[in-house]
Amino acid sequence: MAEHLLTTTVTETTTTTPTTTIPPTLELISSAIGDSFVHYLNKLDQIPGGQIILRYIRSSYKNDPVRSLFELALFIFAVHYFLSSKRKENKADIVKFSKLEIDELIKDWEPEPLVEEVNNLEKWQLSAIPKIKGWNKSHMTLYNEASGNNISSNVVNLASYDFLDLNENDNVHKAAKAEISTAGVGACGPPNFYGTQDVHVRLEEDLARFLQTEQSILYGQDFVTAGSVIPAYLKRGDLCIVDSGVNLAIQKALIVSRCNIEWYEHNDVDHLESILEELKPTLDKEPVRRRFIVTEGLFLNTGDICNLPKIVELKNKFKYRLFLDETLSIGVLGANGRGVVEHYNLSRLEISITIGTFAGSFASSGGFCAGVKPMVQHQRINSNAYTFSASLPPYSAIASSQSIKEIMNERTAAGNSKLIAQLHERTSHLYSKLTSIKTTFFKVTSNSNSPIIHISLSHQYRKALGLPAFYGNTHFLNTGKQARSLNEFSKAYNIESFLLQKIIDGVLFESNILITRSKSILDHENLPVISPQLLIMVNSGASLKELDLLAQTLEIIVNKVCKSVSNEARLLSLEDELLKYTKY
């Protein structure tokens, strides 16, 4: 007979201390179980890999099969415990309801609201949203939904991001209409499945050619573009040096990526350089990790333009990559609308990642990212919004392609885009008119090249009203850390916004020109929020005469409103007025 690989052994030990003896019956049962287990265990020798298990038992447990059997039982129990339901219902405790009782319970049930109710102090903001009859264009009709009447017609629209007035372009309309007739209104799937159509591929090519880069990639929604692109490259342990004035979409994207963040003062390249110098010795000793500098081209919150040449110089010196958000600058800055890169006459190859939107100057919807081929290809399988979200609607894609063609079709004598030249002319004209106004109540704070002209209440006037310099996460100014809890509702921010709304309404009533204001939801903000500002969105469809009228009217209305609210007590008295506000 073949010798068993495992055998049961009995060792006799003698001790001087008293021991407890096992009853003969239990000893026989244990011996029988052990012999039986050994018999079946030895059959493992006939199975490929079984010898490894037998060798493990023999070496680990000193040829003790009973111990192995006990461990196997514990392992089976553990698997059963974790895979089975941890709580088994007692059928005796289950209460059965009749259909009538179920209906009564459903009738009495009140679900918790998905969002908090708008309090009475905020309801005026809903009433202040203008309703447009027809589509959004440079001259439009405002509509009162409650009364069913037009408030005013032929209103000059300076409250839209459609800077080039392409929403009113017949060629864009025809292209979108033809695509709807052919492909419908939806892509019906994510790009990696069956959501990519020929118009998407053409738009990627048109955009890459327009921006003078290797490739581009499309996103169905512009707000989630940053929130998908940044986490595709940055993970926990990576490093970002970020301008503290970036928009909300970038703030949220950085939180999702869980990377390490260092903030530099808004648009202060000297502070950026000092941070890079300070971090260099530490980073030189650590393993190489991904490092990005993150900024905007044209800042949404302030209207500033980043010092891109200096930032490019620093990122090359300290070996960082550059992430640039050109949501507002593409289609606006540069002789042909190629953004802040063209504005400074730099190469797009200096920018590792560029993101932007089609919802501005391109008169469409969705977002995009542009750069070198490997960067784009990486996003096609690693970017969540691209992989799991529906593609850009086909008609939006072809409208964007047509808008790019419209920008490049008509040329000036110098060979640049005529549309962009018209926008620059109107921006410069209105900026000059507004900055020449002598007043103690407001000041223009944006860059002279920005078609979004930011006007804020002067420091002197805000101080007289007792208004703070910042709202929301003010501890960031001392700690440099993003807020981890929601900001509370601010009465001061609400009343200051209402004061600006009175100016907006006054300008509309006197000149039939609609402007707007900044709108920040403090609950969502992780960085300090600057004071609310009046925003004038220059549109190439508005005439120079209409812009002159705006400058004249704005001076009159601002002086009238601000003189009527001259101190903190008068400001607080506006609460009674905002509770009754029903403008539109």
UniProtKB/TrEMBL annotation:
Cofactor requirements of the protein: pyridoxal 5'-phosphate
EC id: 2.3.1.50
The keyword Hydrolase is annotated on this UniProt entry: no
Keywords: Acyltransferase, Lipid metabolism, Pyridoxal phosphate, Sphingolipid metabolism, Transferase
Region (Disordered): 1-21
Gene Ontology terms: biological process: ceramide biosynthetic process; sphingosine biosynthetic process
Highest rank taxon of the organism: Eukaryota
Domain Aminotransferase class I/classII large: 154-447
Gene Ontology CC annotations of this record: endoplasmic reticulum; membrane
One example GO MF annotation: serine C-palmitoyltransferase activity
UniProt KW Amino-acid biosynthesis keyword: no
Record pathway: Lipid metabolism; sphingolipid metabolism; Sphingolipid metabolism
UniProt record similarity statement: Belongs to the class-II pyridoxal-phosphate-dependent aminotransferase family.
Name recorded for this polypeptide: serine C-palmitoyltransferase
